[in-house]
Every structure is written in structure tokens, then in C-alpha cells.
């Protein structure tokens, strides 16, 4: 069965200049991608400290302050040393000496002056060559030729080395990439209660989002989802009227100047993650987020919703891609939702109470997920490989901290997302490094360890320059966050008892293992063994598993043989007919039982009237590998596709399936399709069986 959970709140956030603190919660479109935007930036004139030596330094029409500086110029013969609190006027063709003390409203007029000024306040005319210590306020040095040492102040509207400094804004035009991300939240309380009661077993959660428009898509890209660490407010902003100051934005999770996200820079998400790869295709999302939903349900992660972002943020190609998805506020049928699917099929082909049914079952295997309490030890140091990343680090006296976001380039981290906060140390000086094509650049040498993310505790050495980390060699061990929630399949029976093969299928840890399986209940087990295939041969596993062992995990195709005195099987090798019985109108938020029956299209004729009619009236049960699908009759889009969660059930009266109408749009028509598989043949039955969902 499938049950749709529509988002309780959704919005998108952006760090495009001017939008960082604005909300778009009521917008009809959710945006994901890294659009490039051309902006004009005005940089105001600033005061720049100078703490070095300048030669041939010329100041004309200087206005500012020179603090603790020494100026050297043309030398001349020292004439006098004057120390006084007040000097009203000094006039000389050539003056050489020392002026110390405090001078108020004073003036110095000299064609050539060589000496030193200390705590001078007044005016000066002439050619000055000497040293200045202390502060000079409202000074006027029309002709200066010398050297400024340890200068700390500002120069406004003057000539420096023959270049004019204008007192005007600095305007630049840039085309920069920005980030758009979608935030969504779903209420899982009802699903959690059904799981606890046993009505739902081993569900799969699929995030579904429909694309409204796409721009500049690269050939290959991924969309990635992470659980959000902080509670947030959907807000009331519209993009077309400039957004709102109330609600989540790139900088804040509630309102303008309100509560900031826990991590600066809007990296407010945690693990586990989910992703969907796109290759030569548009971006309709059907992403398996079961690991995230299980983390919400078991309480390891608080359900604050999830964020959807693109791989262009961590592995940019320069495409400037943008994806536009319908939101819950759209006026279409394409609102985003969480598709909860589980196998509710029951196969009974006769009356059990009379003993008329004999079911012979060959166990075909189990499917489960790795739970808390598990451990996987990878040999040879575990994590190893090189990655490159964007790094937003703060450096204080050689200590560094900040966010790193990139991707693995070699080793057993190749192609993986490398995201997390780091702490470490950095060289105080930059070193010349030879890069690709022999290009020279300067970089800091850093050593750091991840403090958050899947690589928490792992260390790396790298070069750091211009917010980039290159040639970072990462070493460490996998944390439990790397594999919790990963799926595992174990064929049953194994044929080599007491040993079993287990196939781990995870994002980071995967491979074939050999070991011993211990069943501890109808939906739990443990497995201990060692990897025998894959990248982690020799690694040990000690796993706690939760899944469906006796019912939902079995593959019934070709593994269940049924006999019954009530119903007979239909042989699809001969022409057959499938009849779907359902009401013309169905109310929303109902769960209805839809009958499906089969019969031979051309039954063998005879002259016994009653048996002849019975061949048309007595249903035959379809093969166990029979499924249903739901199709929108107007758009012809598949709403529910054929999968393991739309398998037909069967009781003593024939086949059927349970249909949940709560997720289907109201006042629309839908069509039922049936798929039958047997002996390698596949048949799709479309009898135009149409029903309408009404209010």
C-alpha cells in the first residue's frame, strides 16, 4: 500500500545578494540550484593601515593622521632643537632641528625643513624631510619627499607615487554563483503510531517533487537531502513582491534579525543523507529518504524537516543550473509529498477454516536495515583518499576552524560528499606551491580534523588558499552514522548453513560478507561476519538488524506454491481477461477494497449449461507476481507505479488490493492498471477502469 504525506510547511531560501534575510514561504515555486547573477557592488572608500616601508613616497594636499612614523628625505645641517609647549611661528629658508611637546594653532614655514616633529598640531609649508612621532592633527604638508615607516592612518584625495587617490565610491560589476535550497517538513506521527501497532512493517519513504521549470542543467548532477537540525518557520513571503521579513531565510530560521541558524552560513543540516542522480534528464524528484525518515522515527534525529540542495554547491561545473518545483501553495495537483510504501499483500486462495488451503513456502530471503548497536571495522585504516573542497576557515594565531564542503577524488572516498566543520592548525606563513601546468601560488599548510558529519574524527593535511583546500589526504575510520539505516539482504536458505551471505548496500560502506545469522524475532536479527568481496575485504561486521523476516521480506515470485479447493490458478499462457470491480465515485480520505478477478477469455465449450456458466462466474486467482497502478486519467501521469508495495492480495473470494485515497487530488478521475507476470512474460491490462475522487 501507498500513503501520501503532504508537506506541513515548505519554502526556499537563497543567499543571492539582497535575499539573504528574506522569506518566500507562500511562494508557489520552490527553487534549488546555483544560479549566476550579475550584480553591481559599490565599495565605499576605506581607511587602510600601512605597516611597512615606502620609498619615494609623495603626498600632495594631504589630510589625515600619521602615527608613530619616521620620514627621511633630503638632509641638511641641523640648526636648532626647540622644546616648548607653544610655538606660534617658525619661519626659515632652511630649518633643521627637533620640535617636541604640544603645539597648538602653530605654523611652520620653511623652504626646506629637516628634523623631527612630535605631537605637532598646526600647519606646515615647505619641503619636509625628517621623522614624525606621535599624532599630527589637521596637518598640511604640501610637499613631502621621504620614507614613511610604521604608518597607521589614512590618506584622502592626494597623490601617492604619482597616482591620484579620488574620494569617490569604488563600483564593480560581477557575475557570481549563488545558492537556492528548498526546505520541507512532514508530520510522521500517524505513521509512527501505525508502525508501533504493527499495521505498517518496514516502510519505504520516497520524497516526490514535480518540476515546473529547469534552466542550464548539466549533463550529470545530483540532488541531495539532509535532515535539518533546527526548528524553522515557513513564513508568509512571496517572491514576486520582494519577500517577507517573517519566516525562514538564509540567515535566520524564523524572522529578520531573529534566531540565526545553529551554524553560520546556512549549513544547518546533519546526517544521514539521501541523494538522487540525474543523467541526461530533468529534475522530477523520486528520492529514497528512508534512512532520514527512520532516523526521525527512532529519535536519533529530531524531525525538523529536510533541506534539498544540488551537487553544484559541492562539486560545481559552472553550469549555473536552476530547478523550479511546485510547492504546497501551488494551484496544481503537483504539491510535494512523502510517499510511504509498504507491502500489505496477503495470499490466501481458499478457506483456511476448512483446511482447504495448502500453502507451501520456500523462504527466499530477508531485507533489513542496520540499527543502533552495530559496528563495522574496515581494515587498513578505514578511510583513505584525497579530496578537494571549498573551505570557509577562520585563522587566529595559527589555529583554524570553519566549514569544509567538497568531494572525494581518490581512494575509498572517491565521489563522496565531504561536508563538515573542522578544527586544526595552520602555518603562520604562506609557502610557494607548484600547481597544475607549473603554475606557482602561495598557500598555507594546514592540519585539521572533522568535528561534525560522516567523517567526524578523521584528519587531513592540505594546502589552503583563496577559500580552497587542495590535495587534502583524509584518514580515519567510519563512524556509525555512516552505515546506520543502510539496507542489507540475506538469502534464506543459504545452502551453506550455519553460514550466510549478507549483501550490504550503503552509500559509504558496501560489499558481500560471510558470517552467521541469528533470528531474534519476526522483524529483528543479528549478523556477525567478515567482508569477502568489495573494497573492504577483511573488514568485520557485527550488525543489529531490523526488517521483515517472515513475510514482507520474501520474494514470492517463483517461491510460493499454492493449492486450494476453493479457487483455481489462472494460466496466463492462454488468453485471459482481468475484471476490476470498483465504485464509480470514491470519497477522499477513504481506504477501499478493490476486487480483481481473472478468467479465461475463451473457455472450453460444452453442452452442460450450468458448468458452462460457472466457467464465466467462478474467478481464477492471478499469479502472486501481479500488481496494480493508478494513473491520472487527464494528464496520463502515473500516480502509483507497479512495485513491491502495490502487489495484489488474494483471499477465498479472489484477488484484491486496498486503495488509500487520502493522497489523491479531489474532483479528478483516475484509471486502474493491472500488471501480471508469469514465467518471464509480462502483461499490462488497461480496461479503462475509471473512478473519481470526490469531496
SSE blueprint and pairings:
Blueprint: E1 2-6, E2 9-14, E3 29-33, E4 36-43, E5 54-59, E6 80-83, E7 90-100, E8 103-118, E9 120-133, E10 143-148, E11 159-160, E12 163-164, E13 170-177, E14 180-185, H1 189-197, E15 204-209, E16 211-215, E17 220-227, E18 274-279, E19 285-288, H2 290-297, E20 306-310, E21 322-326, E22 337-341, E23 357-361, E24 366-370, E25 375-377, E26 383-396, E27 399-408, E28 417-426, E29 431-434, E30 440-450, E31 459-465, E32 468-476, E33 487-490, E34 500-505, E35 511-519, E36 524-533, E37 540-548, E38 560-564, E39 568-569, E40 576-581, E41 585-587, E42 591-600, H3 609-617, E43 620-621, E44 626-632, E45 638-640, E46 649-651, E47 654-660, E48 668-678, E49 681-694
Parallel strand pairs: 6-7, 7-8, 8-9, 9-10, 39-43, 41-49
Antiparallel strand pairs: 1-22, 2-14, 3-21, 4-13, 5-10, 11-12, 14-20, 15-19, 15-22, 16-21, 17-18, 17-20, 23-38, 24-33, 24-37, 25-37, 26-27, 26-32, 27-28, 28-30, 29-30, 30-31, 31-32, 33-34, 34-35, 35-36, 36-37, 40-42, 42-47, 44-45, 44-48, 46-47, 48-49
The shape is: globular
- Report the mean per-residue pLDDT as an integer: 76
Largest sheet: 6 strands, mixed
Radius of gyration, whole Å: 37 Å
Low-confidence stretches: 46-107, 118-128, 131-166, 351-363, 550-565
Helix content: under 10%
Number of helices: 3
Strand order of the largest sheet: 5-10-9-8-7-6
Structural class: mainly beta
Count of discrete structural domains: 5
Query: Span from first to last CA?
Result: 22 Å
Beta-strand level of the residues, as a percent range? over 45%
- Total beta-strand segments: 49
Amino acid at each position: 500500500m501507498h500513503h501520501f504525506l503532504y508537506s506541513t510547511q515548505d519554502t526556499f531560501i537563497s543567499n543571492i545578494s539582497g535575499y539573504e534575510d528574506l522569506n518566500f514561504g507562500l511562494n508557489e515555486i520552490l527553487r534549488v540550484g546555483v544560479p549566476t547573477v550579475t550584480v553591481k557592488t559599490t565599495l565605499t572608500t576605506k581607511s587602510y593601515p600601512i605597516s611597512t616601508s615606502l620609498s619615494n613616497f609623495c603626498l600632495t594636499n594631504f589630510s589625515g593622521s600619521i602615527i608613530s612614523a619616521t620620514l627621511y628625505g633630503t638632509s641638511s645641517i641641523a640648526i636648532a632643537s626647540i622644546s616648548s609647549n607653544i610655538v606660534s611661528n617658525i619661519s626659515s629658508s632652511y630649518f633643521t632641528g627637533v620640535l617636541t611637546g604640544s603645539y597648538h594653532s602653530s605654523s611652520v614655514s620653511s623652504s626646506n625643513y629637516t628634523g623631527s616633529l612630535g605631537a605637532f598640531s598646526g600647519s606646515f609649508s615647505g619641503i619636509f624631510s625628517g621623522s614624525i612621532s606621535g599624532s599630527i592633527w589637521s596637518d598640511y604638508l604640501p610637499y613631502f619627499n621621504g620614507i614613511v615607516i610604521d604608518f597607521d592612518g589614512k590618506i584622502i584625495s592626494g597623490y601617492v607615487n604619482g597616482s591620484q587617490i579620488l574620494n569617490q565610491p569604488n563600483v564593480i560589476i560581477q557575475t557570481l554563483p549563488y545558492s537556492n535550497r528548498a526546505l520541507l517538513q512532514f508530520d510522521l506521527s500517524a505513521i509512527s503510531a501505525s508502525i508501533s501497532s504493527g499495521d505498517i512493517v518496514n516502510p519505504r519513504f520516497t520524497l516526490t517533487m514535480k518540476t515546473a521549470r529547469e534552466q542550464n542543467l548539466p549533463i550529470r548532477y545530483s540532488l541531495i537531502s539532509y535532515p535539518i537540525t533546527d526548528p524553522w518557520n515557513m513564513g508568509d513571503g512571496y517572491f514576486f513582491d520582494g519577500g517577507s521579513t517573517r519566516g525562514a531565510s538564509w540567515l535566520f530560521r524564523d524572522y529578520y534579525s531573529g534566531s540565526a541558524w545553529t551554524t553560520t552560513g546556512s549549513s544547518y543540516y546533519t546526517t544521514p543523507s539521501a541523494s538522487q542522480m540525474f543523467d541526461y534528464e530533468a529534475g522530477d524528484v523520486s528520492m529514497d529518504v528512508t534512512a532520514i525518515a527512520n532516523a526521525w522515527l527512532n529519535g536519533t534525529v529530531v524531525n525538523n524537516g529536510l533541506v534539498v540542495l544540488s551537487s553544484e554547491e559541492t562539486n560545481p561545473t559552472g553550469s549555473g543550473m536552476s530547478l523550479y518545483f511546485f510547492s504546497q501553495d501551488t494551484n496544481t495537483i503537483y504539491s510535494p509529498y512523502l510517499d510511504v510504501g509498504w507491502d500489505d499483500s496477503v495470499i490466501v486462495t481458499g478457506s483456511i477454516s476448512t483446511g482447504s488451503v495448502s500453502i507451501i513456502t520456500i523462504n527466499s530471503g530477508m531485507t533489513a536495515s542496520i540499527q543502533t548497536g552495530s559496528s563495522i571495522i574496515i581494515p587498513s585504516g578505514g578511510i583513505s583518499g584525497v579530496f578537494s573542497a571549498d573551505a570557509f576557515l577562520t585563522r587566529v594565531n595559527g589555529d583554524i576552524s570553519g566549514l569544509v564542503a567538497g568531494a572525494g577524488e581518490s581512494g575509498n572516498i572517491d565521489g563522496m560528499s565531504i561536508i563538515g566543520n573542522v578544527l586544526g592548525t595552520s602555518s603562520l606563513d604562506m609557502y610557494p606551491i607548484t600547481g597544475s601546468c607549473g603554475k606557482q601560488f602561495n598557500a598555507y599548510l594546514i592540519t585539521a580534523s572533522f568535528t561534525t558529519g560522516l567523517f567526524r574524527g578523521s584528519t587531513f593535511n592540505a594546502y589552503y588558499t583563496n577559500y580552497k583546500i587542495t590535495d587534502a589526504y583524509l584518514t580515519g575510520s567510519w563512524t556509525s552514522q555512516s552505515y546506520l539505516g543502510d539496507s542489507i539482504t540475506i538469502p534464506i536458505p543459504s545452502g551453506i548453513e550455519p553460514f550466510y551471505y549478507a549483501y550490504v548496500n550503503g552509500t559509504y560502506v558496501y560489499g558481500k560478507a560471510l558470517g552467521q545469522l541469528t533470528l531474534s524475532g519476526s522483524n529483528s536479527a543479528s549478523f556477525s561476519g567478515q567482508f569477502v568481496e568489495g573494497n573492504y575485504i577483511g573488514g568485520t561486521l557485527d550488525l543489529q538488524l531490523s526488517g521483515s523476516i517472515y513475510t514482507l521480506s520474501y520474494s514470492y515470485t517463483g517461491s510460493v506454491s499454492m493449492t486450494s479447493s476453493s479457487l483455481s490458478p489462472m494460466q496466463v499462457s492462454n488468453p485471459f481477461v482481468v475484471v476490476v470491480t470498483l465504485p464509480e465515485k470514491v470519497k477522499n480520505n477513504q481506504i477501499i477494497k478493490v476486487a480483481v478477478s481473472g478468467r479465461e477469455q475463451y473457455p472450453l465449450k460444452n453442452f452442460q449449461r450450468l458448468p458452462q456458466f460457472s466457467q464465466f462466474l467462478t474467478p481464477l486467482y492471478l499469479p502472486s507476481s501481479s500488481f496494480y497502478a493508478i494513473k491520472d486519467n487527464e494528464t496520463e501521469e502515473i500516480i502509483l507505479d507497479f512495485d513491491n508495495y502495490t502487489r495484489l492480495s488474494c483471499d477465498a473470494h479472489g484477488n484484491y488490493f486496498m486503495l488509500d485515497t487520502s493522497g489523491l487530488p479531489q474532483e479528478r478521475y483516475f484509471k486502474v492498471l493491472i500488471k501480471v507476470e508469469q514465467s518471464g512474460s509480462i502483461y499490462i491490462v488497461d480496461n479503462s477502469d475509471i473512478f473519481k475522487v470526490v469531496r
